[in-house]
Amino acid sequence: MFNCILVANRGEIACRVIETAQALGVRCIAVYSDVDAGAKHVAMADAAVRIGGPAPADSYLRADAIIAAARATGAEAIHPGYGFLSENPEFVEQVEAAGLVFIGPSAQAIRAMGLKGAAKALMIEAGVPVVPGYHGADQADAQLQQQADKIGYPVLIKAVAGGGGKGMRLVSAASGFTEALAAARSEAQAAFGNSDVLIEKFIPQPRHIEVQVFGDGTDVVHLFERDCSLQRRHQKVIEEAPAPGMTPEVREDMGRAAVRAAKAIGYKGAGTVEFIVDGTGDLRPDGFYFMEMNTRLQVEHPVTEAITGVDLVEWQLRVAAGEPLPCDQDDLAITGHAFEARLYAEDVRAGFLPATGTLHHLVFPAIARADSGVRAGDAISPYYDPMIAKLIVAGPTRAIALALLRRALKDTQVAGSVTNLEFLGALAAHEGFAAGAFDTGLIERDFATLTPAADPQIVHMVAAAMQVAGLDKPAAMAGFALWVQFAHQVRLGWQDQEHLLSVEVLDQHSQRWTHGDQSVTATRHAGQWSIDGAPLPLCHMSAGQVTVFDHYGLVFDIHDPLLAGATESGSGNLIEAPMPGLVKMLAAVPGQTVARGDRLAVLEAMKMEHALLAARDGIIAEVLAQEGDQVSAGAALIRLEEEQA
Predict the structure, then answer these.
(1) Domain span at residue 443?
(2) Active-site annotation holds for 398
(3) Residue 420 and residue 373 in one domain
(4) Are residues 83 and 12 in the same domain?
(5) What order of strands is seen across the sheet that includes strand 534-535?
(6) Domain count, the chain
(7) Residue 30 located in a structural domain
(8) What is the pLDDT of residue 559?
(9) Active-site residue among 296, 318, 342, 406?
């Protein structure tokens, strides 16, 4: 086993690797960018080295700085985590040239699976079923259109490099192919530096089922499957293992196919073979197709660990240190069921826009494993993925595990940033998901029902107002005589509405609260406030807001009458940045006439591109930013001329 390793990553995966490595007695070196100097993974490590500025290109993608840090600190090996340099074959070669061990597959194996077209050709050779499509080198637009017509619509255009849904477009008819191809190429070039694409037959009602494999360069085993079909924008939201509806026959066939895929490239380490599965009926041995292989540890690996009892990071370290596979295929078995939910700082109703903010309060329930790279007080940076945590639960059956997931999500407390917690709760409660009857289109189809408008009740407003008025603590009323009543008013903002609540403090143990024509009495017993016997939910107050920890977190603004009217809403002529990010493209010049819906700018944030459109017809008055600018949320980018009366 190694004495010392360097973890070339950040966030929850860096913390995850450090935790296992240190449990094995291995010393861990962290690397960090300027904005991560006080990050959780830095605090956990035995030592840490600064490697550059906030942008990934200036830090976590700097192979030279990472290798120099490893050599300077005496590290013998580098664990890449996932993302950043984890699937970069040139980085593997640089690590090995420096006399260090790369904890992962060979550069050759990564290259073999790095380009989707070449990988599929290799899989056909290995006898692994693939989706009908075109993976050729001729990238002429006419050739791609011809191949799409030949395959038959609908088809998927997919970038040959990378993943995460970038450079991917669904084309339903030939008339939309040219526009979709241009968009896919542009996004692929920006994300991966490679505009080449492949064309695939689109499978209706597809399920995304993947198989965890592990090799030592000679032998390969599989650790069964995971179902990752709950996706939005081709990105996974909730994963589970094993896959619902899986039969022993299909599991055996899929596992064998995954092992063949890994053996075909002499695979070493943890990897995932992803299949697209026909979900129109029962799972069939002839109904799954190779999609891609991720030559690294997956974000969702904990659900496999939960049902197999295997620590995959431990296996990575042991095999990279020269040990053979820790067990044979016959030694592996499935026990129970597990779910993982990805908790993100994002605004779901605004189209899953990434969010930032300081996590003033962060608490996870004891019934869940919480893999997180942040703590209370940490900030969500605009430079990196906005994941807050992965919540993992396991139970003896799928029904019990799902009930535990629902409870864990309800009991998770986050304040300081908008999150997808309520959305995750709605997914976990979805009837189709509970029945195992779902595919990758579920979220898009049922988005409206998965994002119902929250409706706070008077109990929530009282809990928030009590916190604002400072009347939630016994000390606040210690000076009041029982025969003297105290009156107070609190103004709370909920979305676009203001709510006025009045309170009469009757004594140290009771308060009468009024909101409109509603009146309730809150009483305290054994330190707990309640209304009609129901305890008031817990709250957290910070930064002009109160978060009530019920219904996945209800956030009220604190309205100070002295500040009312101090700000005015915009005139509607400004196009503003909806989040912090990089101005990737500007397609507006002063004097230009634009129509409603025209794309005027592209903002890159959280590894995604967001088009900013003209909200009305008009003429560009000013362009207030330049391409390459890093802007904050709400920054004015483009101004339209005032509309004529």
Answers:
(1) 336-451
(2) no
(3) yes
(4) yes
(5) 534-535, 528-531, 518-525, 510-515, 497-507, 486-494, 554-558, 545-548, 539-542
(6) 6
(7) yes
(8) 84
(9) 296
Strand 545-548 and strand 618-623: pairing? unpaired
- Split the chain (645 residues) into runs of 10 and give each run's mean pLDDT: 98 98 98 97 98 96 98 98 97 98 98 87 92 90 96 92 83 95 93 92 92 97 98 93 97 98 97 94 93 96 98 98 97 98 95 91 98 96 94 98 98 96 97 94 94 93 94 62 63 92 92 95 94 95 92 90 36 76 88 88 73 87 88 84 75
Q: Are both 60 and 22 inside the same structural domain?
A: yes
Question: What pLDDT is recorded for position 158?
Answer: 93
- 503: Cα separation from own chain's centroid: 42
CATH code assigned at 19 = 3.40.50.20
| pLDDT at res. 542 | 87
520 shares its domain with 590: no
Token duo for residue 523: 């009483």
**Residue 567 lies inside a defined structural domain of this protein:** no
> How much helix, strand and coil, in percent to the nearest 5, is found in the chain?
30, 35, 40
CATH code, domain with 474 = 3.30.700
* DSSP states along 293-320: EE-S--TTHHHHHHHH---HHHHHHHHH
pTM: 0.82
Indicate if 516 and 468 belong to the same structural domain. yes
Please, what is the Cα angle at 269 between 264 and 271, to 5 degrees? 70
